[in-house]
Amino acid sequence: MLKKEMEKVKSLIRENFGQLNLIVLLTPFIFAGCISWYLLSDTVANGPFGPDTFKAILEKVAFYILVPTALIAYYRFCIERSRFFLWFLAIILALLCREVHWKWTSGGVYAMLGLLMLIGYIFYDKLRPQISSSAFINLFVTAILCYFIANLLLDQNWARVSKEFRHDINYKKSLEEFMEVLGHVTIALIVLLTPALVREKSKDEPDLQSKV
């Protein structure tokens, strides 16, 4: 049983790995470098930016991105009747829960996302028409990289940055918020750019064009 599942995982990796665009995957790191350059520039140093300025603004921006994205995902599910958008809507709602900053969301959101990834794996064959598209694969991996940089390297303090380093703008927290926003934008692009589900025509369905 375990051997069979391992073979399935290897098959899925081989199936999707060939569609990855390395240039797209470099985007989060290039963005992090550009934002770091901006945060450390004279523009910020000489501007009216306090330690929580970027954090306060970008946390509001997150809702302006994720809430409309959730509505569009729900709309596409209703119109296209695609299980993919119902599954992805649940992912967006999990991200929204974290942005609300309830006590349980700091760790609970990881459990929710892990469960949703497991559901995606179990029902992969039903989600395959869209979950295996090049647009989804590249954007989804890019979003994961954005959240990895923001929440694991920066938020969890794996990337050690001195508290005194640019304390006037709270460099580390500001960069984290910028990376999260890029992740949210990527999630929005997934909802907008993932191809519509093309259903196969039933054999019993009359061919109207042939009758014209």
What would you note in describing this structure?
- The protein is an all-alpha fold.
- The chain is globular.
- The C terminus is likely disordered.
- 74% of the residues lie in helices and 0% in strands.
Low-confidence stretches: 200-205, 207-212
Main pleated-sheet profile: none
Q: pLDDT average, as an integer?
A: 83
Tally the helices: what do you get?
Answer: 11
Question: End-to-end span in angstroms?
Answer: 53 Å
Structure classification: mainly alpha
Q: How helical, in percent, are the residues?
A: over 70%
- What is the strand tally? 0
What is the global morphology? Answer: globular
Q: What's the gyration radius in Å?
A: 21 Å
Order of helices and strands: HHHHHHHHHHH
Q: Per DSSP, what share of the residues sits in E-state strands of 2 or more residues? A: under 5%
Question: In terms of topology, how is this protein built?
Answer:
Blueprint: H1 2-17, H2 22-25, H3 27-39, H4 42-45, H5 53-80, H6 83-100, H7 105-122, H8 124-131, H9 134-154, H10 171-193, H11 208-211
Helix pairs in contact: 3-10, 5-6, 5-10, 6-7, 9-10
Outline of this structure?
This protein is mainly alpha-helical and 212 residues long.
Supply the key terms.
single chain, 212 residues, mainly alpha, 11 helices, 74% helix, disordered C terminus
